[in-house]
Design brief:
By secondary structure, the protein is mainly alpha-helical. The protein is built from 15 helices and 2 strands. A hairpin with a 3-residue loop joins strand 1 (352-356) and strand 2 (360-364). The chain starts with 23 loop residues before the first helix and ends in a 9-residue tail after the last helix.
């Protein structure tokens, strides 16, 4: 019947959508791209706040919790009875937990997408500016200010995102995620290598079992704020649950998607943890209690300048891809809602095939081109007006970490697996959820404090590295 109606069954899956071609490699690349950001290079500072024992232990705890909750979430891609796919995180929550929790999930998820896109715009521009600064320091000395305006680089990053945002959907981004994952490995290796080289020179920075010292490095209150912020950095460094099901929806149906996804989760999370541990521990050994917030963009290293510059190029390229991994689900949500609400509107639904060099046939759509371009422009302007917006992103992350990474996956697992209330499994899952809630609250408090400090020093359009 499909053949008689002109439908090419070779090019579609059993649900009528374009044939999925993803595998363990592409899913792992998406995960690594989403998880590893330039924040990996701030882990030396995070470990410095906690010390040799607590720092690595807390990092490992967050990696285990993320891996565990993600494996629970992977089982929620299909309805176990009907086999129906859940194409998005929101859809899984609505199907399994109901409409009220669906609305809360959507609010947390899309707020986080917006915050991440703003934060990535700012961070990428700082890395791009760091390339220029590395060259300046080399020729003018390490004491030179070499201050650089970030706004031109914010605009460059925004223009790139306007172009990449026109790709129709998430399935067209596998190549970009693979390139971005390679970049994340590149700058992580460079950061680790530079830290190892610094340790090998015989320098002995001041370190301790408990990290920065009260009365010598910081006050008691400062250490408390720093520990809370460091915990937030470690927790949010692993956050990719909001795009996990969207990534899983790119996988081929055979072998079963949840089996393949769990392998990709294990590979992605533990590879990430390996690099995080190296960056955090080796970085702390290299800089001690004086570890900078980011030892590449913060210039913990100056030489070889070309290697520092190359690492920052890698960071910027990686964030180009990571930006798309997070905003594509938001793009698709808005466009799907519009198509459902106004199915007869040609501005929204009509596709116009256009031949493009080096791409092939691009299906032009007025809504997609218009709204995605406007979104990127608005994000770029906000990043220019509020250069301290990373604190707001941190606040959004604080509010999204517990519900998106922990609460909803656990509740979906309990509901779908019919876990008996007050059983040992139910009790331990609730304890885990409550503990992560406390972490999110503490991180939110620290982010709000950072936001207040940033507002007091606000200089719109004056972001300088």
């Amino acid at each position: 019947m499909d053949v008689e109606h002109g439908i090419n069954t070779i090019d579609v899956d059993d649900d009528g959508r374009n044939k999925r071609t993803g595998n363990v490699l592409t899913a792992s690349a998406h995960i690594i791209t989403a998880v590893i950001g330039s924040g990996v290079l701030s882990l030396a500072w995070a470990v410095a706040q906690m010390g040799w024992i607590v720092g690595p232990v807390v990092l490992l705890i967050f990696s285990f919790v993320t891996w565990f909750a993600s494996t629970l979430q992977a089982d929620c891609y299909r309805n176990p009875v009907t086999g129906k796919r859940h194409y998005t995180y929101r859809e899984a929550v609505r199907s399994i937990l109901g409409g009220r929790k669906y609305k809360l999930c959507a609010l947390a998820q899309y707020s986080n997408f917006v915050g991440v896109s703003i934060g990535y715009t700012i961070t990428a521009s700082i890395s791009m500016a760091a390339v220029k600064r590395a060259i300046c320091f080399h020729y003018h000395g390490h004491e030179a200010g070499c201050h650089t305006q970030n706004n031109p680089y914010i605009i460059i990053f925004g223009v790139l995102q306007i172009i990449l945002s026109q790709l129709p959907n998430f399935h067209k981004l596998s190549w970009l995620s693979i390139v971005s994952a390679a970049m994340s490995f590149g700058y992580s290796f460079i950061g680790i290598g530079l830290a190892v080289a610094k340790v090998a020179t015989g320098s002995k920075p001041r370190t301790s079992l408990t990290g920065v010292e009260v009365g010598r490095d910081v006050t008691g209150s400062q250490k408390t704020w720093n520990i809370m912020t460091a915990m937030g950095n470690m927790a949010f460094a692993y956050a990719f649950s909001m795009v996990l099901i969207e990534i899983q929806d790119t996988l081929k149906p055979n072998p079963p998607e949840n089996v393949v996804m769990k392998k990709a989760i294990s590979f992605g999370v533990w590879i990430t943890t390996f690099f995080y541990m190296l960056c955090g521990v080796v970085g702390y050994a290299a800089f001690g209690n004086d570890a900078p917030g980011n030892f590449l963009t913060g210039f913990g290293f100056y030489e070889p300048y070309w290697l520092v510059a190359l690492a920052n190029v890698f960071i910027a390229v990686h964030l180009v891809g990571a930006y798309q991994v997070f905003v594509q689900p938001l793009f698709n949500f808005v466009e799907t809602q519009c198509s459902t609400a106004w199915p007869e509107n040609k501005f929204i639904t009509e596709e116009y095939p256009v031949k493009l060099p080096f791409y092939g046939v691009y299906h032009f759509n007025f809504l997609r081109v218009g709204w995605r371009t406007i979104y990127v422009i608005i994000v770029t302007i906000i990043a220019m007006i509020f250069p301290f917006f990373n604190d707001i992103v941190g606040l959004m992350g604080a509010f999204s970490f517990w519900p998106l990474t922990i609460y909803f996956p656990i509740q979906m697992y309990i509901a779908q697996g019919k876990v008996r209330k007050y059983s040992s499994s139910w009790i331990w899952l609730q304890i885990l959820s409550f503990g992560c809630l406390i972490v999110s609250v503490l991180a939110a408090i620290a982010s709000i404090r950072g936001l207040i400090v940033g507002v007091s020093n606000l200089k719109p359009f004056q972001s300088v590295s």
